[in-house]
Amino acid sequence: MAEPHAIYLKDYQPPRYQVEHTELRFDLAPDATRVQATLQIARAPGTASDAALVLDGDHLTLEHVAIDGQPLEPGEFEVTDRALTIYTVPERFRLDTEVVLAPASNTALEGLYQSNGMFCTQCEPEGFRRITFYPDRPDVMATFTTTVIGDQAATPILLANGNPVERGELPDGRHFVTWNDPHPKPAYLFALVAGNLEKIEDQFTTQGGREVTLQIWVEQQNLDKTAFAMTALKHSMRWDEERFGREYDLDLFMIVAVDDFNMGAMENKGLNIFNSSAVLANPDTTVDAMFQRIEGIVAHEYFHNWSGNRVTCRDWFQLALKEGFTVFRDQLFSSDMNSAPVKRIEDVALLRTAQFAEDSGPTAHPVRPDHFIEISNFYTLTVYEKGAEVVRMLCNLLGWETFRKGSDLYFERFDGQAVRVEDFVDCMAEVSNLDLTQFMRWYSQAGTPEVSVDSAYDAERRTFTLTLSQHTPATPGQDEKAPLQIPVEMGLLDEQGADMALVIDGQSHGSSTVLNLDESTKQFVFEDVPHAPVPSLLRGFSAPVKLRQTLTREQLSFLMRHDSDGFNRWDAGQQLALKELETLMAAYRHGDEMVLDEFFVETVRSLVETPASDKAVLAEMLTLPTEAFIAEQQTTVDIDAIHQARRFAIARLGDTLFEAFETLYTQEQSDAAYAPDFDQIAQRSLKNVALAYLCASGREEAFAYARRQFEANANMTDVRAALTQLAHAGDTSIGDPAIRAFGERWAHDPLVMDQWFATQVSRPHEDALERVRFLMAHPAFSIKNPNRVRALIGTFVNQNRVNFHRRDGQGYRLLADVVIELNRLNPEIAARMVLPLTRFKRLDETRRALMLEQLERIKAEPLSRNVYEVVDKALT
Ligand code: PHE
Ligand code: ZN
């Protein structure tokens, strides 16, 4: 196979031909679907009249091609695996093509495929070229008319973008529906669905008075899982009007749930297609965290209608233009709808573990990458989550009102266009009069900046001097880094824990201010400081950086109790716990007995025993830093020490504070009818954190609580929390009956079986790997379904670190086996799954060698471009 080649941002050329209107006709059949395309094409101004027309087409079988009704002769065009080239074309013309596809054998789940018999499409980023010959790039925008023809019995429902304009019956038990989408759009937003579906329907009136019909289409057995998403959709529509002034623009908005789907969901114009796991929910089958995730994803896809669809990306290097902004918008929505501090804590936790890990590994790339081999590999935490942090920094720099003006300007100025990150940032600069030239480096420079802190108090001068320095480590292809503009929000706490008045250069800055760290090193001198303060830095996590600051336990505990910033209170607690865990890890490494520090135990006790003002935050405060987070802090990751220390700390806390946790657990019981609302979720989280500590003690009374909670069967959140505690007990006889009962009860529901898989394979004992192999043969598992793969393999690899990183290398071998199989079936998922094998840099030598061995094994296979790109980066 020829070595795949990279595409560069700097090589961008505008399209030579534009498509003005696209007419598609699908005659659906599992093994031979006919696709006829009629494209109205016009040569772009400035293009030479002899410029060939080159259309993307990924392994398509061409049956017919004609220009203005005239079939082409063999010498007039060329077809390859990747393109259709027509050597000479008129200035304006009609192109007709016909191809034949086999959706039933499409296991990549890109283009047109089948899921449980249902036909559906996934076109972003470059799936449309698997459907028909087309200039498959986001800066070609056309109106679409789509006719879908299908078997009446197998596919009674035929959907596409826009509004239905015509329908009718055809011979041989077939029928058709024609859809028209009046909004010009890139091909990646095209969608079609055909199947035996049922719907729930609702109505929404926009602020401008448009009556919109809302539909959620699912397989019949899932109708009772649609209500929550419908409510979330209506909330999203209202919120986008109120917060961003954005109104919906069609008379119909549809969501379809599909079981086989590579990602969470897709924002196709007027016809969002969702992974069923990202939309279906009810109290019996779905845990609280999932309800919240669904609400966020429904909002995210809906918000794309403006940030992505109306204003789209010029090319795929600009992916963060739509994704970073839209994630920021959905974060803001979720934080308005639920607990704002908890939402921030969760988002930062994800960023600081998974995104920071990406930034320090071989696949590190800027928020706006400058080259790629396979664009599907760039739907990453860096583009999405760091991309959102960059927009958040802009919002904080400008202030909400000005940011909103910039957002309005952006939508007005670029409506109907395909634009670049610069266009967005320029709007923000224009409305604020800020110079954002240096800020743009956040988009082009990869890696996580480290900010180190030095401070000095001068009692005589009554000054407090903060010296902040920044350094971004080298990343592949970027050895030298320029200083970024880092907004450091901060305050100074006095002896009572109150915020001091901040005075710099005789200027008052209130009690919390933003320091602009825009050079390698900068000093900030605070005046009139009566005594040495405790600094609270990076409030609200004001920039996506690693803060290197040495605070004592006393200072951390002080911040944890007094900081006026909720996020920093939580973070101080995490830092304090981290210190404790590091001490335990050192003891473990030296073969000493691990002993939990009294001061730490008492700190936790006071949290458990003091009535909580915010239960949701308390549940977060009581959760120790995850193994992934601890690993991120280490130069050499000691897998075993991290796991043993953390497990020991939890067990000791559970045992020492048993009565306190028991009181908390009992106190937070409730018989209220289940609702996935803020107060109830907070209460359940707190109760289930308490249950986890109780069970960690290993005492039989604790498992009795878990068993009772499991058997009460009140809602999936409580059932699953109890099941997890039982299934993770060292003695398998404690968990086995519950595992069996759960598996039998839910055998008919794949999304619940995913939870059953995940619970078992995250078991922190040595038998976990055998459990994975065993469950891979379970009838409910299928390697072809991405949700099953993520639940069973993904959970094991990412949530069961000690066992994935087993010293005998069996965990790595297992993952490589799976990747090799997936590489043939579904390259996009394969390339995602292989990532943990590329994070070997900071592991011990034995594990590094074992990982490399598996990477070499994968490399020896005939690889898809997706997997090739990732593995090649890792091995270079
Ligand atoms: N654009 C989708 C989103 O962020 C994600 C996606 C990408 C889905 C590629 C499918 C394929 O909402
Ligand atoms: Zn998105």
Structural class: alpha+beta
Instruction: Please tally the helical runs, counting DSSP H or I stretches of 4 or more residues.
Output: 27
Helical content (DSSP H or I, runs of 4+): 40-55%
Give the total of beta strands. Answer: 33
List the strand order in the largest sheet: 6-5-9-3-2-12-15-14
Shape: globular
Low-pLDDT segments: none
Distance between the termini: 19 Å
Strand content: 15-25%
Question: How would you characterize the overall build of this protein?
Answer:
The model has no long low-confidence stretch (mean pLDDT 98). A hairpin with a 5-residue loop joins β2 and β3. The longest helix has 24 residues, at 566-589. α24 packs antiparallel against α25 (827-833). The chain starts with 6 loop residues before the first strand and ends with a helix. With 876 residues, it is of the alpha+beta class. The chain contains 27 helices and 33 strands. An eight-stranded mixed β-sheet has the order 6-5-9-3-2-12-15-14, with no helix packed on it. A five-stranded mixed β-sheet has the order 17-18-19-21-20, with helices on one face. Strands 10-11-16-13 form a four-stranded antiparallel β-sheet, with no helix packed on it. The structure holds phenylalanine and zinc ion. Residues 300, 304, 323, 326 line the site of zinc ion (ZN).
Structure at a glance:
One of its GO terms (molecular function) is alanyl aminopeptidase activity. This protein is α+β, with helices and mostly antiparallel strands and 876 residues long.
